[in-house]
Amino acid sequence: MVVLIGFIIVCGSVVGGLHLGGGSVMVLMHLSEFVAVVGICAGVLVIASPMSVLKDVAAKTITAFKGGPIPKGAHMEGMKMMFHLFMLARKEGLMILEEHLVDPKNSEILKKYPTFLKNDQAVMFMVDALQPLVDGRIKPELLRPIMSTQLASMKDEARKPVNILHLVGDSFPGIGICAAVLGIILTMGSIAQGPEVVGYKVAAALTGTFLGVFGAYGFVNPLAVLIEANNEAEQRYFNMIAEGIGSYAGGLAPQLSVEFARRTLLSSERPSSVELEAELKEVKIG
């Protein structure tokens, strides 16, 4: 919603500026320039992107419009979920977690934390981290390097859509110039039709330049920056989970493990230690 408001402000500023200058937004309505600029940029996006990256661009753009990948309260819920699992494992042994890891969607414990359960990537990350520990396939001290490797891979993957959008944004002004040159070529073929026709076609050509700069700095580049910020927020969420699991695997008590996880968050995301303690007291183990 905030992204949509920003886009409305950008467009409204153009319309308002034209109106105050005594013009009309209709002076920008040259379909040929829109088709050339938007079409070429779409082609650049397709040429530069594997299908998986195209899907990620679409998915992350939709997520940006929805308000971000990590909803409010998700961090607290994630810490409560880890505390619940850690306390259960401490009480019954690590093997008790097997049933919750094999089929997490039907786990009676994980169902108590719906925001976490809806995040398929977070669920998979947690399962991949805890499963070898439960199975005894790795030593606890090896778990952190494994999670760090996976986090680095996830970070690289999340960066690809941002790189593509920056490429498109950086290409937009140049593509606008290309569209403007095409318009001038058309204009040169219409000189004999008189100054009125020539003036109209020159205005259309200049619209291409405007659209290129406007699209880059008003829409695509800001969207790429927002998606990058969303990626960082998502990365911190996974770092929180990794820190909690790594601390518990290292022998720390459940509450202290969750406290270490809390410390990985930014101040805007991090609940106070008092708030966390109060929430953890409400977790019923059983």
Task: Describe the model.
This protein has one domain (30-53, 71-286). The chain has helices spanning 2-20, 31-48, 51-66, 74-92, 98-102, 114-118, 120-135, 143-188, 195-249, 254-262, 273-281. The protein is mainly α and 286 residues long. The protein is elongated, with a radius of gyration of 26 Å. The model has no long low-confidence stretch (mean pLDDT 90). The protein starts with a helix and ends in a 5-residue tail after the last helix.
Task: Specify the number of helices.
Answer: 11
Silhouette: elongated
> Biggest sheet, open or closed, and with what strands and sense?
none
Oligomer: single chain
Question: H/E element string?
Answer: HHHHHHHHHHH
Mean pLDDT: 90
Number of strands: 0
Low-confidence runs: none
Kindly provide the radius of gyration, computed on alpha-carbon positions and rounded to a whole number of angstroms.
Answer: 26 Å
Number of separate structural domains:
1
What is the distance, rounded to the nearest whole angstrom, between the alpha carbons of the first and last residues?
Answer: 40 Å
Strand content: under 5%
Task: Give the helix/strand class.
Answer: mainly alpha
Helix content: over 70%
Supply database-style keywords.
single chain, 286 residues, mainly alpha, 11 helices, 76% helix, 0% strand
Task: List the topology elements.
Layout: H1 2-20, H2 31-48, H3 51-66, H4 74-92, H5 98-102, H6 114-118, H7 120-135, H8 143-188, H9 195-249, H10 254-262, H11 273-281
